[in-house]
């Protein structure tokens, strides 16, 4: 049995995936809203140990999905990732999908040829936290990437055969910058056109709250649930992609779960948000919400 180095995180859609912990922590680990990997020092695990753990799980030939952790395993050199993919393919004959977290900086360090090799070897999906399309907010949260970097990274991955699941955080601009946040995020998503788009709601812990809010010189006034639903409604309204984007807001932090395809389901999604704002349908209670 694999013994994971905790804490261990994975996207909601990877609930039934085998998790292969190729790195520990996050190579950036400076985002002011996030405490996920603050207890870890970024480490690249020896490839021999990773391969041995994959081999150990090879008796489970029914495995169809694998998620490569921790926070930004795309930081690994392309040749190491290729070895992992080759081992996965040899051990799991029914494997259909291999996914990974990525940040724009480490994704952009990969050449188009390397990304195409990874795609051909079985890497099918990467998760990329845009968080916001606003350069003002991206600088405040110390994301380490701006609008142009996200756009280039998503385009580069998808041009070389790897689907992208991007994330926007509602509430990230507070009440003062919410429109800037949503308008620029919608513009970026419309231009980059990731395969999937999801939203989650800003939830600050005591460990991150002061650092995060301190970057807002004008003061940070958090959005209410209704304010974040209004943000999500505007985001859905403004996204105008040239091809379909699969949209989800099923993260546990969100007050309202949504699913559909943009632009086709725009009206249905907006109508559901309006119904929630009027109190006609229930939202997720606070005790059921979290990161």
From TrEMBL:
Tell me which residues make up the Radical SAM core domain: 10-248
Q: Which domain of life is it from?
A: Bacteria
Q: Which keywords does this Swiss-Prot/TrEMBL entry list?
A: Iron, Iron-sulfur, Metal-binding, S-adenosyl-L-methionine
The protein's required cofactor(s) are namely: [4Fe-4S] cluster
Q: Which PROSITE patterns match?
A: RADICAL_SAM (PS51918)
Extent of the signal sequence:
none
Quote the Pfam families the UniProt record gives: Radical_SAM (PF04055)
Any idea what this protein is called? Radical SAM protein
Q: What is the species listed in this Swiss-Prot or TrEMBL entry? A: Candidatus Thalassospirochaeta sargassi
> Taxonomic classification, please?
Bacteria, Pseudomonadati, Spirochaetota, Spirochaetia, Spirochaetales
